[in-house]
Amino acid sequence: MALRSQLLKGVLDACVMAVVEEEAVYGYELSQKLQKIGLPDISDGTIYPVLLRLQKNGFIRGEMRPSASGPNRKYYFLTDSGRDELRKIAGEWEEIAMPVSKLLKRSDEA
Higher-confidence residue: 28 or 106? Predict the structure, then answer.
């Protein structure tokens, strides 16, 4: 489990930006979406530091909006800089993921 957690930590920023690129979301909703796509280890306590870091780096921006079920919520949007960064990370991921997958599949066949 520790290895999975370390691997995920390396790509979590990109995963968050990819979700935010699809639609504006608030923190809890983002956590739920990540869990729904198969990343159950992502908790609210993990998400908020990532959101703060991405916002500090100018990759996302936050905006308070009214909520139908309680207090206002902070929704996050991807910035142009965030879009560029996401494309860069996605390209780098492809360069790493494809060869690693090939290697691991070979070890399965052996």
Answer: 28
Which of 10, 3, 5, 25 lies closest to 97 in space, CA to CA?
A: 10
Six-digit token string for 57: 């780096």
Q: CA-to-CA distance for 74 and 59, rounded, in angstroms?
A: 16
DSSP state of 107: H
- Confidence (pLDDT) at 68: 85
Nearest Cα neighbor of 30 from 77, 69, 64 is 77
Q: What is the pLDDT of residue 2?
A: 67
Q: How many CB atoms lie within 10 A of CB 10?
A: 10
Burial class of residue 11 (count of CB atoms within 10 Å of its CB; 0-12, 13-18, 19+)? middle
Report d(CA 25, CA 42) in Å as an integer. Answer: 15
DSSP strand pairing (70-78 vs 60-67): antiparallel
Bridge partners of 26, per DSSP, are: 75
Q: How far apart are CA 41 and CA 29, in angstroms?
A: 15
**CA-based nearest residue to 27, from 63, 3, 68:** 63
